[in-house]
Write a structure and sequence with these properties.
The chain is mostly beta strands. The chain is built from 1 helix and 7 strands. The structure holds zinc ion.
Length: about 100
């Protein structure tokens, strides 16, 4: 079983293989790679709805960063797969590197 904040149902949904509401599948999440842009669930504290550039893919989720205008460096965050959605986008310049 996997749990995610469903963008269609606007609630936490537990599912097996595939979410009945939005068609999110576990397989799709496993395709996330370093350099991909993912979006944080809107209800997530502080980073809600932020775009995150993935710097590491783990068993449980990802590590990545948020880039803010006028702020030196990057804000790193660790997120479980249930807290993010793939956007299909890629960062052209994945800056920062290791934490
Ligand atoms: Zn869903």
């Amino acid at each position: 079983m996997k749990e995610h904040f469903c963008s269609v149902e606007k609630a936490w949904i537990a599912y097996e293989d595939k979410c009945n509401w939005c068609d999110e599948s576990e397989g799709r999440m496993s395709e996330i790679k370093v350099g991909d842009v993912v979006q944080v669930s809107p209800d997530y504290e502080m980073f809600g709805a932020c775009m995150v550039v993935v710097t590491e893919v783990k068993d449980w989720g990802i590590q990545g960063y948020v880039q803010s205008a006028g702020v030196e460096g990057q804000q790193y965050i660790r997120l479980k797969f249930g807290e993010i959605e793939a956007t299909g986008g890629r960062a052209v310049w994945a800056v920062g590197g290791a934490e």
